[in-house]
Amino acid sequence: MLLEIRDLSKSYPGPEPDRPVQVLRGVSLSLDAGQTLALTGESGSGKSTLLHLVAGLDHADAGQILLDGREVTRMDDTGRAALRRGTVGVIFQQFNLIPSLDVAANIGFQARLAGRADPARVLALAGALGLGAHLHKYPEQLSGGQQQRVAIARALAARPRLILADEPTGNLDEATAAEVMAQLLALVSEEGAALMMVTHSERMATQLSRRLHLRQGQLEPGP
Amino acid sequence: MTPAILSALAAHWRRNPLQFLTLVLGLAFATALWSGVQAINAEARQSYDRAAASLGEGQFDLLLARDGGWINAARFVALRRAGWLVTPLVEGQITPDAGAPLRLLGIEPLTAPAGMAAAGVARTDLAGFLAGRVLLADPETARRLTPPPAVLQGRQVRAEAGLAPGTVLADIGAAQRLLGREGQVSRLLILPDQPQNQPALDQIAPDLLRQGAEAAPDPARLTGSFHLNLTAFGALSFIVGLFIVHGAVGLAMEQRRPLVRTLRALGAPLRLLVGLMLAELLAIALLAGGLGVLLGYVVAAALLPDVAATIRGLYGASVSGTLELRAVWWLSGLGMALAGTALAASGALWRIARMPPLASAGGRAWAVASARRTLGMAGAGLGLLALAAGIAAFGQGGGLWLGFTLLAALLLGGVLILPPFLALALTLAQRRRMGPVAEWFLADTRQQLPGLGLALMALMLAMAANVGVATMVSSFRLTFTGFLDQRLSAALYVNAEPAGDLRALEAFLEAEARELLPILVTEASVAGWPAQIYGVRGGPTYRQNWHFLAGGAEAWDTLVAGRAVIVNEQLARRADLAPGDALTVLPGLVLPVAAVVGDYGNPVGQVILGEDLFRATFPEAAPRRFAVQADDPDTLRRALLRDHGLPTAAITDQAEQKALALAIFERTFAVTGALNVLTLAVAGFAMLMSLLTLAALRLPQLAPVWALGLTQRHLAGLELLRAGLLAAMTALLALPLGLGLAWALLSVVNVEAFGWRLPMFLFPADYARLGLAAMVAAGLAALWPAWRLARRPPAELLKVFANER
Ligand SMILES: Nc1ncnc2c1ncn2[C@@H]1O[C@H](COP(=O)(O)OP(=O)(O)O)[C@@H](O)[C@H]1O
Ligand SMILES: [Mg+2]
To answer: What residues contact B402, with CB distance under 8 A and at least 6 apart?
Structure first.
């Protein structure tokens, strides 16, 4: 099992002091290598929160996350940083890129951090995503769709076991979104990575092998 | 409408308290540095005057008894009645129970000149002083005399820092009683500003002899140059502060543009808007300037030894041991604050005034400077530096204004060149192959430059000012001590004029002195310039102590042989003379220049001839002053006083004078060191404020890197490293700029203003220390923002990626 989540809870400080808002209440799930999972739920239901916890970007209150046999919930800052570098690839809805680096450097950044630098792979991914002509542009010179493609290329370039995507096409128009989505799914299956993707689009969700719905802090099977 | 607009404008400050703080504190610090330097300058000058006056050295003409003895006090009354502004002095020795004798100086506080110790001093307890109950002495002597020994007949001695060492100051009546000289005075001092038509002196007091103000080398004349240089650096410190103000004002104006647009759309006239913003800024400037003057006063008082800031001092009351806050400082401090704010705001206000009411509200991003702007800065900076180089190479002798143009071009050019220089250096560094973090670090640093530009410029100016001050002060100290060694090398300086029998005195000195240096002088016009021609005896004293600016040691031999002359720097510059050039000393007397000698502080030219040649050329000019080397100066001095009827004022103890001058300069030097620290602190403050302003803008730049696998602590460490790196690179450029500024001041401005050049010495260890201090200042400034970054909850970083950003 690549990812195993048991009884995960997370709360945020609420508007009133000492009255935290409980976002996740005992979430459990498991995900095998090569599987793709769609996570749906209303806005504010805690999808992003769950994703952040799995990626080692934030701390859970209780419960366990086992990723690749290691317990993320017991890692310190350094361990989490190593996890983000080497094991997962994260794609956010927007502002994924490092503004001071050009496209090529952005794509290669995580792979180099993880010690898996591979310039040929950077070129290949960029080509596959139609970024070949933009390698020396800076993020601010790209359209939203192009920026998300760079983020996808970067996540894949590092060869992570698990790709975590948080509404990666949420900011794009419908046609572009569909195209980017298709490219992401094709590359993920090509690489054999697992994918956990947050989306509120039914159409997108149906393209993935499994679906789970987050409601009132708990997971239920998708429709 | 006006109140509504005002409250809308003020709302901005309420929402951005940090910006308001930056503006007020920046301006206050700038003003504080400026007025602090003014205060220190004034205090140094004053304490020098006071100490010099209490030594009895003459900036003043004196009246002495022709017979060398005491003068009847009635003479004083007669002279005053006749309209002569004179003040009596009583001088003698008292010997406490144990230890060396002390000099007792009695003055008449009500008629004594303002510069003399008495005037400022005795006000502490004027009644007690006038009644003779209170005496004053420098702190060390005062300690020695507490409790008062029997010779003081029950009088108390209070410490007064401005007094010359080993001198006890008393009211004239008390001094007469202590010395057993009731009704008698030692000499009368002629005040400089006399009414026009009094009867001639020989009519009222034929038994008195007028002795001209001391012609001995006067270290006080050097201070003019020192204070000019210090003031220049004070202005530089002020500019450091202005950079903070400029940044804060610019940011505030930029952020209020949408508001201005809205107000205009609502019908507020542009003129009223701009006027109100200007009034708002002026109010802030007055507030901050006032704060700054007070701060500068407190800082100066804290730095200056032996003076204190007191409430009474704030009103300008002259109180012993108190720094007086003068009206001039208030005016100049507030004036600088107002002018500085106006300067910093004018660009921003002008842009607002020209803004069409319906222009797009987006505006340009403040923090993003275009490559074109960087190029423009580089071009302008290089142009100004080229202008500076041109003036340095070809414009010397072009007058004071050219010197100041050189300074300004150097300063502005150096500042403008900094951001392009940093950008270029980072770009070059990026060419090298390196790890992903280093690569990102450099790229990101490059991206921070526009936002940090002003703070870095301030840091560079602060560093340059520090390097300049350190160079100037240390060069001054070396030159000054060397020059004092040279000019005050003889033990005693004897004014022979009051002596009854000049010839007998000279014969006595020839016999008793280890080396006698008769001072022969006559006024003349040389090469079309007023000059003094000196005749000197080229003995070991001169040969050992005089250092030439040009020309070799053999100059003395040719001088003694009457085959050459030595000229001072002032004459050499005016008449364009170098060793080997022929100089027409008099019609018919043409000699080559053997050497040029530094003559710091002297306004006039000098030609030095060998003694024999001088006596042959000017047979009527007899020596009236002697410098004397003696194995036992005290015995010789006593003999001169006892056997040759010389008054004590006619003999100057050179060592004492030298020690005094050095002590006072050391105090000022020490204070400038503390000023350096302050300037750097202000630059650090500018850096801190810039970093805090940037902190919010930084998150979108840092969050992706963090998400990809760097810890927050690692990122915070890199932020510190960045500050240190930028400071180090800035220091690299600040060093030559500081040296250039020092050079321009010492070698160009000083020459234009005073006619002589202050030799410049380099102090690499000091510069290394200053560079380190700048990096520490930058590091400290970055510490808090970095700490905040390290401690930020991850959720805040994650917000960057969230929809609702
Ligand atoms: N840093 C935070 N502090 C307080 N509340 C938060 C924070 N982040 C998220 N929340 C709250 O937690 C809930 C879940 O947020 P999120 O996981 O972003 O939901 P989703 O991604 O499903 O829209 C929301 O109610 C949101 O307001
Ligand atoms: Mg979300």
So the answer is: B391, B395, B748, B752
**Could you give the C-alpha distances from B489 to B220, B485, B657, in angstroms and in order?**
17, 5, 11
What is the enclosing helix (H) or strand (E) of A155? helix A144-157
> Ligand 1: which atom is nearest the Cα of residue B802?
18
Residues B283 and B176 in one domain: no
Hey, are the CB atoms on B710 and A101 less than 8 Å from each other? no
Q: Is the C-beta atom of A23 inside 6 A of ligand 1?
A: yes
CA A43 to ligand 1: nearest atom: 23
Contacts of A98 in chain B (CB under 8 A): 440, 444, 701, 704-705
Task: Note whether B708 contacts A110, CB cutoff 8 Å.
Answer: yes
A59, A81, A95: residue with CB nearest B800: A95
Average pLDDT over residues B408-434: 91
Ligand nearest to the CA of A46: 1
Question: Closest approach of chain A CAs to the CA of B711, in angstroms?
Answer: 6
Q: What is the pLDDT of residues B715-768, one digit of tens each?
A: 999 999 999 999 999 999 999 999 999 999 888 888 888 888 888 999 999 899
**Is B540 in the same domain as B503?**
yes
Nearest ligand to the C-alpha atom of residue A166: 2
CA distances from B561 to A202, B510, B587, B591, B611 (A): 112, 21, 20, 12, 9
Residue B25 has pLDDT above 60, yes or no: yes
**Cβ contact A81–B794 (<8 Å):** no
pLDDT tens profile A139-163: 988 998 999 999 999 999 998 999 9
Q: Which of B160, B189, B215 is the last residue of a domain?
A: B215
**Same domain, yes or no: B109 and B39:** no
Tokens 């900036």 belong to residue? B59
**A3-221: in CATH 3.40.50.300:** yes
Q: Which residues contact A204 (CB under 8 A, 6 or more apart)?
A: A38, A169, A177, A181, A197
Would you say the ipTM is above 0.90? yes
Q: Is B529 on the interface with A (CB under 8 A)?
A: no
Is the same domain home to B323 and B204?
Answer: no
Nearest CA to ligand 1 atom 25: A44
Same domain, B311 and B271: yes
- pLDDT tens-digit profile of B527-565? 877 788 999 888 888 888 888 888 887 888 999 898 999
Which of B694, B705, B708 to probe by mutation at the A interface, max A CB count within 10 Å?
A: B708
Supply the mean pLDDT for chain B. 81
pLDDT of residue A108: 94
| Mean pLDDT for the stretch of residues B425-450 | 91
Most B CBs within 10 Å, among A83, A93, A95, to test the B interface = A95
Residue-range definition of the domain harbouring residue B627: 492-660
pLDDT at B728: 92
Ligand 1 mean position, distance from CA A23 (Å): 7
Residue B200 and residue B117 share a domain: yes
Q: How far is Cα A113 from Cα B644, in angstroms, rounded to an integer? A: 93
Q: Which of A58, A93, A99 sits opposite B794 (nearest CB)?
A: A58
Q: What pLDDT does residue B668 have?
A: 66
Give the whole-angstrom CA distance, residue B241 versus residue B789.
27
| pLDDT exceeds 70 at position B359 | no
Find the helix or strand (DSSP H, E) in which B270 lies.
helix B270-303
Output b/e per residue, B206-235; b: 16+ Cβ within 10 A. eebbebeebebbbbbebbebbbebbebbbb
State whether B574 and B627 are in the same domain.
yes
Residues of chain A with pLDDT under 50: none
Check if A118 contacts B (Cβ < 8 Å): no
Q: Does residue B551 sit in the same domain as residue B626?
A: yes
Interface of B with A in 400-459 (CB under 8 A): 435-437, 439-440, 443-444, 446-447
**Direct distance between the N- and C-terminal alpha carbons of chain A, in angstroms, rounded to an integer:** 24
d(CA B582, CA B577): 8
> Which listed ligand is nearest to A58 at the C-alpha?
1
Boundary of a domain, candidates B361, B396, B411? B361
